[in-house]
Amino acid sequence: MAARMKRRDFIRRTALVGAGLLILRDPKSAWSYQANNRLNIAAIGAGGQGGGLVNIFAGMGENIVALCDVDDRRAAETYKRFPNAKRYKDFRRMLDELANSIDAVTVATPDHTHAVASIAAMKLGKHVYCEKPLTWCIGEARAMRKAAIEHKVITQMGNQGTASDGLRQGVEIVRAGVLGQVREVHVWSNRPVWPQGVDRPKDTPPIPPDLDWDLWLGPAPYRPYHPAYLPFVWRGWCDFGTGALGDMGCHTLNLPVMALKLHRAIAEGKTVVVEAEHSGCNGESYPKWSIVRYHFPARAGMAPLTLVWYDGGKKPPQEVLSLIPGEVPGSGCLIVGEKGMLYAPGDYATRWQLLPADQFRDFRPPAPFLPRSPGHHREWVLACKGENITPMSNFVDYAAYLTEIVLLGNLAIRLGGRIEWDAATARVRGRPEAEPLVHRPYRKGWTL
Fold it and tell me: How far apart (Å, rounded) are the C-alpha atoms in residues 396 and 244?
């Protein structure tokens, strides 16, 4: 498909009304496709979540041309399902050899390799779908945004709840002022469901023959292989994952961040104060539990507010939980306004309830002003094909900012105490020790 494509040279200046998300300007790499043409997609990460993404895009009729995974055993089912796709272990070699044959790339690797893989693809003009959180550190998130702008590619982060009608209607309700001014938000998660608060293993078992351990480590500091690090459980290790907050924040914080325009505080270079209490962080793995308080300044006519995140079995205080009818689930979100509350149970805010229920018995939602999605993954595919649609969780307008907010919580956890984040300079005021956590030094041989 790539060899037959023609570039569309035009400027999109239309805004998504009321969304605060701009259509990417001058997307010269948004190709013009005939209706029967298919994207040539290469997958970086082909097992686990990566294999699921491959199945989704193949099921939409797109062409899977290459599969890259450092673990042949974990990717075996996907390899079997797509026997004609070329196989690689090193995404750098794949991108080098297939640069003229690939239109788009999916990235579903551990968090610490999201940025190096995505930016390498974007530099070649490839559209990118990257799993959440967008990156391991804030410096990488900003680099991802910059690369998407510079190379004019279509992007989407994998927080699929963003596409649901329920979440978008919840955003509209808050933005329309139904709750009045909001100064308090509570978000809780049932994560972690993997080990945290543990020390580094001391034994050094042999590396499995199907795994390229050095490539799996990528830009992270070298350490001996151990099955305690992978698969899946890498989320709890500081060098590889982003803990409970990083794993689920891009889902469960999504509704309040978008509805209350909290990402604009980052975009406009404001100061955000963050405080964290937790079970203890040893620098190897994230705490068993944490409570993180974000203090956001006023933005876009909205009042300053405090957002509190809870994980590891912690939940809001009883006086807050008592406002929620019925059994409180393991994850959820409560937005508290002057005129009422919006409660969204679960991780994705695909459904919600206005409280107190009696007060809103005859409530009618405001007229929709956000576009309704054809589907989270389909948004990206259609945009890649040049359709006049903007993925809502694109790197430039939203995903990089949401990721930065999430990772600020991890900064507070790892640094301890109270931090003042200067979004204008990307620095923690008065805390120079934060610099390697904001802009990660890479292992030799790896660069953005």
Answer: 24
Residue 435 and residue 367: Cα distance in Å, rounded? 45
Structure tokens at 306: 């405090």
Q: List where CATH 3.30.360.10 sits in the chain.
A: 165-195+231-370+403-438
Q: Do residues 346 and 378 lie in contact, with contact meaning Cβ atoms separated by under 8 Å? A: no
Q: Mark out the alpha helices in 6-113 (DSSP H runs).
A: 49-59, 76-81, 91-97
Both tokens of 362, joined, read 């005859």
CATH homologous superfamily of 2-162+374-398 equals NAD(P)-binding Rossmann-like Domain (3.40.50.720)
Cross-strand bridge partners of residue 296:
305
Q: What is the per-residue pLDDT for 2?
A: 53
CA distance 1 to 366: 43
Burial 114-135 (b: 16+ CB within 10 A, else e): bbbbbbbbbebbbbbbbbbbbb
Q: Report the amino acid identity of residue 59.
A: G
User: What is the largest distance, in Å, between two alpha-carbon atoms of the chain?
Assistant: 64
Neighbours of 112 (CB within 10 A): 26
For 255, the enclosing helix (H) or strand (E) is helix 254-259
Q: CA nearest 29: which of 145, 141, 130, 150?
A: 150
Report d(CA 67, CA 422) in Å as an integer.
Answer: 40
Weakly modelled stretches of the chain, pLDDT under 70: 1-36
Tokens of 369: 């002003």
Tokens, residue 55 = 């199945």
- Tell me whether residue 65 is exposed, middle or buried, using C-beta atoms within 10 angstroms of its C-beta: 0 to 12, 13 to 18, 19 or more: buried
Residue listed under structure tokens 């899946």: 232
Q: Tell the residue number behind the tokens 């999504």, with chain if given.
A: 254
CA dist 402 and 388 (Å) reads 24
Predicted local confidence at residue 334, as pLDDT: 98
Structure-token pair, residue 83: 């026997």
Q: How far apart (Å, rounded) are the C-alpha atoms in residues 296 and 389?
A: 31
Residue 291 dihedral angles phi and psi, to the nearest 5°: -130, 120
pLDDT tens for 148-182 read 999 999 999 999 999 999 999 999 999 999 999 99
In this prediction, residue 327 carries a pLDDT of: 95
Which pLDDT does position 302 carry in this prediction?
A: 96
Residue 300: per-residue pLDDT: 87
Top-level class of domain 165-195+231-370+403-438: alpha beta
Model's pTM, two decimal places?
A: 0.93
